[in-house]
## 1
Amino acid sequence: MSPMPLLLALLVLAYLGSLYTESERKRSFGSASGVEFVVLGALLGPHALGALNSQAVHAFDPIALMALGWIGLGYGVDWGVNGERRVPYWRIFLGCALTLVVALGVGASVFAIGSALHWLEREELELASAATALVSAETARHAVRWVSERRIVSGPLSTLIGDVAAADDAPVMIGLAAVFASYTGPLKVAGVAVPVWASTLGTLGIGVILGLVCAYLTYRDRSTVAAWSSLIGCACLAAGFTTSLGLSAMGATFAMGLTLSITSPIAAELRGKILPTEGSLLLPALLLAGARLAMPGSQTEILLLAAALAARVLSSYMLGAAVAMSRKPWRKSVPWLGFAMTSSGSLTMMVGLAFSLRLSQDIGTFALTCAALSTLLGELAGPITMLRALDRAGELHGSVDNPGATAGAAKATP
Amino acid sequence: MSGGTAAHKGVGTTLMQALCLAVVGGLYYLVSHAEVAPEASGGVLGATGFLLLAGMLSSGVLEAFKLPHLTGYLLAGAVAGPHVLHFFDHGTVKQLELVNTLALSLIALAGGLELRVDDVRKVARSVLASTVTQTVLVFVTQAGMFLALAHLIPFTRGMPTMVLIGVSLLWGGIAVSRSPSATLAILSQARSRGPLTRFSLAFVMSSDVVVVVLMALIITLARPLLEPGAQVSLANLKGVGHELLGSISIGTTMGLLLVAYLRLVGRQVLVLLVTIGFVLSDGVRYLHFEPLLTFLTAGFVVQNLSNQGDKLLHAIEETSGVVFVVFFATAGAHLDLPLLATMWPIAVSLSVGRFAATWVAHRLGARWAGESPLLRRWGWASLISQAGLTLGMAVIIARSFPAFGESFRSLVIASVAVNEVIGPILFKIALDRSGESGLADRPGHSLRPSPLEEGAPGGELELEPDPLPPAPEEPEPANEPDTAPETSREPAPE
């Protein structure tokens, strides 16, 4: 099959995606994570209906790479920001800590069971465990968004969850940079050997330098054209540099976005330009990610996937329950908040896609499959339980469309 | 990236831009000299980003020397490209040509949108007169000059006279072509409005059609001279007729669909433009129609058969700014400098001859049409640039006449390199000197015929404030981001 129909499909999805994220309040359709597009991709892909063959899918790898870079930039520029407000430091710390706990739980489980079952060589197993950990680490961002798009939500619990969700990307992105650097091994740049730890820092360093350049250029000349030229130019450069070196494009563009967010006096304006474009790239990327999915190759892989999901659910549940227990008014929401924390979304899928594009096929596909299952599971459990948890905590105040409706109506939805 | 009317930037800004350029270039140097895993890719992405940033920064630095932005884009591409710093190779440059598809469709669409029937009527006489004089004089003199210099051109030495005449005819046809993209890019940067702008747009866009027909005619007539045994065949002309009519039909349909979309939906025009640019260009080419003419027609239809023209034009200007930088920087990377180094005496001689013929033809045409002194003085300046269209025709000739086609194409590339660098600079100077630069950004002013336009010698185009509404203070140029209003910074797709 020629890549042209796929290009058309991707452009249509880009169009839909741009409508999808046109306004923060407007999106009242579709799942929180966009997992339906992953499923669509999987159905159309080479391992199901075969409407898209592997060659056509791989022809779009550069576009997937660009999408990942741009989405990484979006995460960076929005990191630590909840709505218009910067998240307090201790909540940033909390968000990062929660992410690390979940990641460590999942990674350790996969490593332990994989070792016991002699799944892969030790180095590969470490890599697979780290990749699985990173695709499982995201917390409740999309569930929060899903609820806030449908209900009027306010209160300390929803603010805390929103803050934590806004701050949980950084460990994943740094981890991504480290895993890519480790997979690539020591580099030689201009005759100088660069160890893995320096490559990891280099990934982020490239992003920081280009973020500073971009911050200067966008501030110096505020025309729309200059802003887009600078943003696209720097993002492409960061993604291109790192990919050429075998490093993580998402890690670099995340660092670039974060630098922009911190150093640019017009960060809010830039955020307003970048974030609405996320949908245009996200939906095509989700479709491509779905098309790259494959059924697990062996019973061992199925077992490991089950173990990873179980570890994720368990660790997320315990963390959610711990948060709910920390204050008396929230205790009623203990069971629901635990499950609500299992929600994951586009970050999970994008990290999975990044691994699938870079790592060896076994490990990359395993990580992507784990990401897809985690997203699907989170989608089934996360938004509904989040709605319940906030309802129990008394923080739902009616529907967005009908502000006068009582909170109790929430129980009937979705 | 401010418009052409921007005042001088501070030395500090220029130095900072040069520093940013050095940082980005340094990073690229390090990365391009790293030993990387063989499976690693990303060269195209990096090259795109680099050309975009380097083009933008170079144009900013060159602005201090009053050079057009386009020159900065070309320079960035040429220096970073495979012939000088080798930041990326020919394969990467080839892959970047994808951007050309989008750029050319946007250029043609914008060109059609700029052609308002009322405006075209005003310059119809001038355009007609210039088209006739330019086509005849440039064609004849360039063909003659090529014939005269043939003994100095390596690939024509020893050719029989009849073959030589055939090749000279082809060269004459190539010389008649112009660059709509360069003209539009300069007009966009300069934010110009006025008779010179109108004339340049109308002429360059209509010359596209003329050149397509002329080249088909020349190839048909020259073939018996170039290939012994070949006969004049009207098949080529029939093909051209099919191509022209088909392109106009599809363009009209596309234009009407665009009008319907803009009226009924009117949102996400940017995504729509990208879709149109990539998908429809390929579709039109697949049907053997001319994409440039198709999009030109579509733009013309939207502008003149609906009230959606300005909306679409604004959307294109916002999109095309970024695309233009990559497009021209890629064109710069394509410039074959080693080839130019070997062929420069011939290329420069032919370019100088073309310049002289263009100037004389323009003076004759302007006198014939009874043109205003302003147009008489500066109208030729937009006719020097050559770029994609010319190179495209050289490719067609190379395919049609393999015996000498590749060498012929090399000479065209060398000649285009000269015209592509000089042309935009001359046109920018003409717009600045004629006083048309920046007029598109001045809502409180309208164009009135100045004494110069009405035939009085001496002065330049004058601006008079409209009685209603009162003309606002002209905004400060975009050097002080804290104070200048947003509208003054919006303009310029570069």
## 2
Amino acid sequence: MRTVVAGWRRQWDVVTSQPDYWMTLITMPLLAVVFLAIMRSAGRDDLLSYAVLAPGLIGMWATSLFISGEVIARDRDFGLLELTLATPSSYAKLTIGRIGLVTTLSLVAFVQSWLVALVLFQVAIPIPHPAAFGIAIVASAFAMTGTALMMSVFFIRSTSVRRYQNALSYPFYVLGGVLVPVALLPLWLEPFTRVIFLSWSSDVLRDSLNEVPIEHLASRLLIIVILGAAAFAIGGIAVRRMIDRIRMSGEVGFS
Amino acid sequence: MTAVTDSLRVLRHSTAFAISELGAVYSWQSWIFGWVLRVIMQIIFFALIGVLLDNPGAVQFLLIGNVALMAASNVMMAIPSTQWERNAGTLPLLVAAPSRVMWVFLGRSVQWFGDALATSVIALIFVTRIFDVSLPVGQAVIVIPLLLLIIVTAYGLATFLGGLVLSRPDFRNVASNVTIGVMAIVVGANIPVTFLPEPIQWFAQIFPITHGLEAIRSTMAGADGGEIARAAALCAVVGAAWTVIAALTFERFAEAGRRDGSIEFGD
């Protein structure tokens, strides 16, 4: 646990040192204004809750993947990977701690978005199912951390892979139904949407803002956790394999 | 006359550099499957909001608005790419050279023109087909040059902002993203400008895309040529004004750097 906490502290120092790390928290309120104004200008105040949730989900996804995705790659670029590997602590645990901090910070986007609605649009979006909302947020943050861990290993493989990072944003916002429910997408896309935890998270979170009782809540939350656990397992194994491989092949170098 | 020829030569070299730099940023695979795919999906994302609203008019409004917005947003890459000159350590050499730095900087980020035009035209054709939005050839031949106008005029604003953050390198990406975010709200891409509070409607006029997009929407609504030409001319004038301000900003930056020695060799 000490290693995970050390990862948190290390990442806190990193994110507070560069404005780029705060990018999502700067741009998400602007996106909240866009979504809320689209709904308001179309006379659809009934969709304002959708508009409030979307920047939160986008903020969580973008921050986690773009910052956490770079954690290992940057360690390697700066020659820190080698020094860390020489210590007795688990590199995977340290990385999970660092990614966990980023995911936790990214949840601020939900609060920002709610405040934008309150201050600029004079709407306090109610949460009729607070417990379901809270559990769904925690489950989503867990799945997000696992997904980011998986991606962080993917990004280290080559710098050219990092050029595809852009493709991880809007395709996933569409398939993850962050603003428009996946039920409105063509039917043939459904299998793709259901393997992305974001599609389950966005549906449950939207339902928790609706007065109507939530159907199959437990099983839907379980699916988010299972998808997150699968990502953690894949990410954890990949980190271990990567470290074993570079230790055995002697590829570790200060370059 | 020699001064003009020299300036044009500097502009030509900086443009050639810009184009070769694009090849270093993208391979054709990463451009298509990384960038173009992302742009198309972003426009689909916004057009889908029209589906959510159950309003075909909103689908077209958001689709066209976001094609134009992506064209202008793409050029905002000129803000960080202006900064790359500082990171490369070449800025002090440029300031020391006898030619004016504004010619270098006005040419060194033009690579985004081709990128922005190609991605926005591909997205326009592709996404209008997906959502069954009518775009007859007669309208497309007007809309595409208007997209180019939006791109060129957005470049003036982007290079100005690039010059502004030259002395604050850490803020290059923040400046670019905040500008895109503000444009998404005020220029009429997602929300009609008339829906915004009056002071913000006035503020929207300083963005060339506000007028360029109005010209595109007028074209698609079948408005007369005079109305389209007026909006396009206003777009060109606002863009030209930003280009002049950008040029002055670079000169001022260079002058201040020469005076107080604040331009160092890289970060």
